[in-house]
Amino acid sequence: MQNSQLLDIAADFGSPVYIYDADIITSQYQRLTSAFKSVDQVKINYAVKALSNISVLKLMKQLGSGLDTVSLQEVQLGLAAGFDAENIIFTPNGVSLQEIETVAELGCQINIDNLSILEQFGTKHPKTPVCIRINPHVMAGGNTNISVGHIDSKFGISIHQIPHILRIVENTKMNINGIHMHTGSDILDIDVFLYASEILFETAKNFKSLEFIDFGSGFKVPYSAGDIETNIEEFGEKLSKRFNDFCEEYGKPLTLAFEPGKFLVSEAGQFLVNVNVVKQTTSTVFAQVDSGFNHLIRPMLYGSQHGIRNISNPEGRERFYSVVGYICETDTFANNKRISEINEGDILAFSNAGAYCYSMASNYNSRCRPAEVLVYNGEAHLIRKRETFEDILHNQIEIDLK
Ligand SMILES: Cc1ncc(COP(=O)(O)O)c(C=O)c1O
C-alpha cells in the first residue's frame, strides 16, 4: 500500500487504525501452498488467534483455507464466517472437557493435548475421531513466551508418554485420526522444524488409522527489508519429500496440515498512529503517539521490533526517536530508532501489524480499541468500527451505593 493510500485511510477512518492488505494475505497463502505442491493433500488451517476479524476469516475461506481454533468463541466466529465445521480444528490448551464436547458436537476436528482429557473424552465419545498434540521436546521459537514445544512447556503430551496414550486408546477403543505438534513461533531454522518432524513421523507409526499429520506453524516472518525469514520454499521442498516418503512407508496417503498465523497475516498489516507530542529530554527525543500497549502489546511482551515509518514526511531527514505511547506505564514501541523527522500531527505506520496486534488489544486505561480496515480489490473497507465510550460501559453494572 502506498503512503498516500494509508494517509487517505487515516483521514477517512481516523487514528489509530489497523489496515490489512488482502493482496498480501492472498500471496502469502499461495506461497505456502505452492511450497508444498508436490504433496497431494495439503491442508492449511489459518490460526484464528492471529487476527480474528470475521471479514479476514471470510477471505481465508475464499482462499481455500480451513481454521485452527483455540476457544469455543473462535469456533463460533469461524462458523459465522461460513466455514463448515469439518474445516475447523480445535486445538485448545487447558480447557474443560465440557468445552471440548461442545465443539465436538458442532462437528469440528478435536485435538487433545493432555492425558486426562484424552481418557475422559475417549471413554465418553469413543467414536469421535481425535487428533493428539505431541510435545516433541524441542526448544524452538523467537522468545521464551512463544517457545512451546520444550520439556517444561504446558503444551502437548510428552513423547515419553506415548505408552500412556496407547494404553488409553486401547482401553477406550477411541479413533486417533491425526497427530500434531506446534513447537513455537518465530522459528528461523528449518532444520529445527525438520528435526521435530522426524519425531512426529516416529510417533505417527504408533497409530494405524491416521488421516493427517499436522506440523503446526511458527514460521519466522521478516520485520524489515532484508530481515531474516524462514525459507519456506526450501522447507517445503525438503518436508514434502520426506512426507511423501513417510506416506509410502505408512502405507496410505495422508494429509499434510499446517496452521499458520503470522506467515499469512503479519506483513499484511499496518498500524497507523498519530503523533501527539514530540518531547525532547536531556538524552532522548520521544515521539508520543495516540496509542500504547493497550493496542499493540508485542514490543513490550515479546520484544518485537516493528518497522516504524513517518508516512507524513517520508523524505525528511532521519533523526533518532524513541516511539512511546500514552499509557500510564512504560510502553515503548521503539528505542532510539532512525525515523524521518517527526512533527506533532504526523502519522506513523507500524509494519507487521497483522498478527497478534488487534487480537491482543485491550481497553487498558479505559481506552477504546481502534478501527480495522481491509483493503480488498484496491478498496478500503471498514471491517470493525472504532470503539466508543458506550462500548467501554456496555457490560458494566452500576450499583446503588447507599
Ligand atoms: C497451536 C498453535 N498453532 C499455530 C499457531 C500460529 O503460530 P504462528 O503465528 O507463529 O504461525 C500458534 C501460535 O501461538 C499455536 O499456538
UniProtKB/TrEMBL annotation:
Substrate binds at residues 298, 302, 329, 356. The modification N6-(pyridoxal phosphate)lysine is found at residue 49. Pathway: Amino-acid biosynthesis; L-lysine biosynthesis via DAP pathway; L-lysine from DL-2,6-diaminopimelate: step 1/1. Residues 26-266 form the Orn/DAP/Arg decarboxylase 2 N-terminal domain. InterPro entries: Ala_racemase/Decarboxylase_C, DAP_deCOOHase_LysA, De-COase2_C, De-COase2_N, De-COase2_pyr-phos_BS, Orn/DAP/Arg_de-COase, PLP-binding_barrel. It comes from the Bacteria. The active site is at residue 328. Pyridoxal 5'-phosphate binds at residues 218, 356. It catalyses: meso-2,6-diaminopimelate + H(+) = L-lysine + CO2. Gene3D superfamilies: Alanine racemase, Lyase, Ornithine Decarboxylase, Chain A, domain 1. Its EC number is 4.1.1.20. Residues 18-354 form the Orn/DAP/Arg decarboxylase 2 C-terminal domain. Belongs to the Orn/Lys/Arg decarboxylase class-II family. LysA subfamily. HAMAP family: LysA. Specifically catalyzes the decarboxylation of meso-diaminopimelate (meso-DAP) to L-lysine. This is Diaminopimelate decarboxylase. It comes from Olleya namhaensis.
